[in-house]
Amino acid sequence: MTETGMFKKDADQKAQFVTAGPNTLVKTTAWVVMVIAVSLSLYQLYTAGVVALTALVQRSIHLGAILTLTFLLKPAFSGVKKNRLSLWLVLDWILVALSIYCTFYICSNLSDIFDRQGDWLYQDRIISILGVLLVLEACRRVIGIFMTAICAVSIVYAMYGPYMPELIIHKGYSIERIATTLWLTTEGIFGLPIGVAATFVFVFVLFGAILETTGGGAFFIDMAYALTGRFSGGPAKASVVASGFMGSVSGSAVGNVAATGSFTIPMMKKVGYRPHMAGAIEAAASTGGQLMPPIMGAGAFLMAEFTNTSYLTIIKVALVPAIMYYVTVLVFVHYEAKKFGLKGQPKESLPKIFEVLKQGLHFIIPVVILIYVLMANYSPMMAGFIAVVSTLSISILMNFIRWISSGRNEKSIWAFIAAELRLLVKALENGAKNAVMVSVACAAAGIIVGMVSLTGMGLKFSSLVMDLSFGIKSLAILLIAGASLVLGMGLPVTASYIVLATLAGPALMDMGVPILVAHMIVFWYSQDSNVTPPVSLASFAGAGIAKASPMRTAFASWKLAKGLYIIPLVMAYRPLLGMGDNYELLHWEVILTMITTTLGLVAFASAIERYCLRKATLLETGLFWLAAAGLLWTSYWTEAAGFILLVIVLALQKFYPGTRRTGQPSMQP
């Protein structure tokens, strides 16, 4: 062989190594991620429905697996690639090993840790510091620098309390006390937030992932189109209904936009909706998914634990306000369609309702089972376990029936079993991956909650809100809404709710707001960062799919989601949640409040859009504003006056022609 040929052979071998190396590395990492994710999902099902473990053990194993997935899936920085051997990849695997060891340390020394509370060993302190740093790094990778900075500031505040301003001064704590409190007790990282994430939330996230993987998402979207596609602006109304269906089980606004928006936004644009409005409608509708029972993101479970209220009570009182929110969005969507003369889709181009039900009726069965077991007073964790098992069982059974009815000609029994196993593994893997952000957010929020509890900052912040609001309830609520918007720019919804509930919730309770109402107000306002500029993640996701201006989409979604800001104010003053001062069910007051609030929201939407049955004149617009103010006010007399004004303006719209007649477009899109 010539020298040139030898060099060519060496170069070819090196090229093969360079090509094969990254591929092998990627495949190995993907295999490890799959094994850990599937194992975590199975572990969560086991602890949810078979054997309950000690809280610290159950939560630490969960967090250890979540940290491992984080460091394997999320690069240290945006430019770092995980498909090649590098110093960053070695660092990631070191972090994985440390995460596993820190978890193993708790599980293997549990009794000793309980025995020496406060009398810590040297290795206890080292493991605790490492554990806290691992959570901070995972938070930085998954959520971002903003929340990581808040966690770091809370630790610094706990350390240097004596040097703080007089309003927030405290005695200060050592690094040992801070780290061990956060890592070796249930007062910090392994406190209530991660406890909820590692039990109720994970099981329901897994339920949503299995439903989506087995085809439930497509079924709900088709069902929404079959029900609403014929009406004016049909795809937009289908988007609202589909997002309500999907959001009620997925609980992620941005994820909901990505899942349903890929279908609904192009169809909205096709029938004439402006791109930014199509993205805004999907964002506003998807945000409502986190307010809609039975899952409500992680909020319902956290609220149940924070308020010591049954999960069933939470979803009962949350249902009506969530429906009101969707009614408001639908009204805005309807007005948009009427103003621009947007028609529904032809009946023949829509899915047939009976065909949709025939193909996917079995997806409704797990939801019905879930509602039944919740009504039967099963624990949420057991209810989620039953929902997951029933979804898998029904899906496999229906696929088996289809395989039998096809004459078994398409594939053998072994091929059928292999396909079902692949589907099962994919669903379990997706469930664990979908839970990473919530669990990391809850673990990081545990740092903040732990430091707030240790330093007594909660009482100080509550006093500050009381002072700034001068004891005026509505002003305090507006301050909390502003704080939630700022926090929401860098925190996920779940973390924002935990922080606000810890800091601001007590202020509302000090003003006489019942604890459940206070938490519901805080929870609603924690959603506003999804649709409120300048940082509105759901709106930006919708803008990306619609190929529209992100800020224009954000402002449009902010308008559509106005119920998100009004309804919590009504909760504070009226028994919208079915509770009076002494938690008595005031049936007639509740029904009256529901009616007047819904009418007030319709009047409010009409005033903003300057449209109802037709384009409103200036006089009619003013009457709509006055009717909305009266119906949303707390006095029965103002509600009666608002109702009369609404009847008058509707009569004017109906019988007085105005400047444009109903159905005639008022402007060009």
**SS-derived structural category:** mainly alpha
What general outline do the C-alpha atoms trace? Answer: globular
Order of helices and strands: HHHHHHHHHHHHHHHHHHHHHHHHHHHHH
Number of helices: 29
Count of strand segments: 0
| Residue share in helix | over 70%
Largest sheet: none
Strand content: under 5%
Radius of gyration: 27 Å
Average pLDDT value? Answer: 81
> Span from first to last CA?
73 Å
Low-confidence stretches: 1-20, 581-585, 660-669
Keywords:
74% helix; mainly alpha; 669 residues; single chain; 29 helices
Could you write a compact summary of the structure shown?
The protein has a domain at 586-669. 74% of the residues lie in helices and 0% in strands.
